[in-house]
Amino acid sequence: MNKTVNQKAWFLVLPVFLLVAFSAVIPLMTVINYSVQDTFGHNVFTWVGLDWFYEIIHSGRMHESLARQALFTTIILLIEVPLGIFIALNMPKKGFWASFCLVVISLPMLIPGNVVGTIWQIFGRKDIGLLGHTLVNLGINYNYAEDIMSAWITIIVMDVWHWTSLVVLLCYAGLQSIPDAYYQAAKIDQASRWSIFRYIELPKMSGVLLIAILLRFMDSFMIYSGPFVLTGGGPGNSTTFLSIDLVNMALGQFDLGPASAYSLMYFLIVLLVSWVFFTFMTNMDKKGAV
Amino acid sequence: MAKIIFKNLAHSYLPNPKVNKDYALQKINLELEDGAAYALLGPSGCGKTTLLNIISGLLIASEGKIYFDDKDVTFSDTVDRNIAQVFQFPVVYDTMSVRKNLAFPLRNRGENPKYIKKRVEAIAKSIGMEDILDKKASGLSADAKQKISLGRGMVREDVNAILLDEPLTVIDPHVKWKLRTQLKALHEEFSHTMIFVTHDQTEALTFADKVVVMNDGVVVQVGSPQELFEKPAHTFVGFFIGSPGMNIFRVDVTHDIVSIGDVKLKLKSSYKNLNGKIELGIRPEYIKLSKDSGDIELEITRIEDIGYHKIVRAKHQGMNINIIVPEDIKITQDFKYASFDTNHLFIYQDGWLVEPTGGKS
Q1: DSSP H or E run through B56
Q2: CATH number at residue A116
Q3: Which of A182, A190, A289 sits opposite B109 (nearest CB)?
Q4: Residue-wise pLDDT tens digits, A161-217
Q5: Relative to the CA of A42, which of A26, B269, B307, B351 has its CA 20 to 30 Å away?
Q6: Percent helix / strand / coil, chain B, rounded to 5
Q7: Do B95 and A181 touch (CB under 8 A)?
């Protein structure tokens, strides 16, 4: 059979191509463009090569933000993952209360980050906030605006409050997919509660659990609005995470060149860690299949 | 190892059962001998799995008692009953190797590692898996996984019984046959009491010494495959076992005369005080076709040649009759008569077999 050559089909891809170019490719290219140039206004640009990248890589400011960011993400993962699994394991499996718990658990996720920040900002104030006022009256030195420890604890609790639900929901879905026969067999084999978790529930949950960890990693690594509303990065710079630092640099100081280099590196870090996760996950799947 | 005894055992999933229909399992009194192979046979939803779960303790019966020998275990939990159970779908611990899977029940009981090793190897040999003992269980095929489940069931030597809940459902037909033979061999080797739940009569009849036939939550008959075939205690057994099942006709019986429509037949013995729904049952194997004379007239509608014999489908005044004819007899439309072998003819009242009151007349 002879195939006729017809290139007109490319036109069918054109709308998508234009849309993606408009919404993603061109903005990203603009950032890349800024990252290798310097300007003194009047739309006059000079080529600086990789100078901005060099500056950012060697800047203490980015190192500190990155360290704070890594610490924050590690802490919330260490809390949210075990807590999420624990809650999912103890949720009712069917009936009215199962649906009830699911709805209640999902509610925090429906609230926008800056609203959550505002809620906790007021909740934690020592003059009018229920939490702040109570803690101070109990004699605890709590003040998220002045004390670094208070600020960190508040931000961590806020994130746990906001996002543990995601881990719970994913784990719960994983648990629901385990047939009853597994539990019955375990009972007959006299498996302990720990063995049931270790050999039945955890392996069956591992797929969704890894997705939960990946999502929580990406999301927490890019956290902005909650801490921004609550502490604005303070006290001092103690809660200035990567995205807050980046916004300060780009929109506060209007240092577009260094900020572009910063954001590209930020993007590469998230991409790299996600890629490692993804490879790890697919390898796990392969091992499971062979 | 123990004898299993049900005393007035019944179960309902409803809180306040009143009529028979509310029971998933109606009252049974039954004794299962130690070391025998039983099959629980019946259609889906007849209460087989309920009964099985009551034996294993996954379910507590709502009425009656269950004993292992003379020990009342009605309220004991699964661990105390020391029962092994294999489920419809293979249950393996994915992250463990085959060896660890087989050893799991023993390890949980804190057995001595040397004994565990020896025992696991013996079982692996019986189920033909000694070569892949250290392979991960998750990558194996469905029938290999089911063999592991089976092996886990058999690894404890002192279990009171091994319960098998339709264990061959997910197995390919050609492997099914092999696995069934293996099961039978394992039963002979270890002589555990085995209870095999199935809705497949071939599986039940080939595996079991005794078959417990259930329907709608009632145990309708317990007997050897031969007994079930030769003398069904209920029209359900007659119909469910055999292929095709027993012919069942609505009839009237007065003493030793049975009327099928307007045809009257003389029986070997006589019956008294029959009331309710009276039916006559005869297996297709015991009806003979003839060209010129017989008990009833019929019209052949279809002939199915299934290789080792033929199944003739015929009609008599709107009633369907199935007849099994040996392969070597040529059947044509001229065969207009059929005669019944009265030695294998049974009368049922409301479904249950009625014994004749009078002898030969």
Answers
A1: helix B48-56
A2: 1.10.3720.10
A3: A190
A4: 999 999 999 999 999 888 888 888 888 888 888 888 988 898 888 888 888 998 999
A5: A26
A6: 30, 35, 35
A7: no
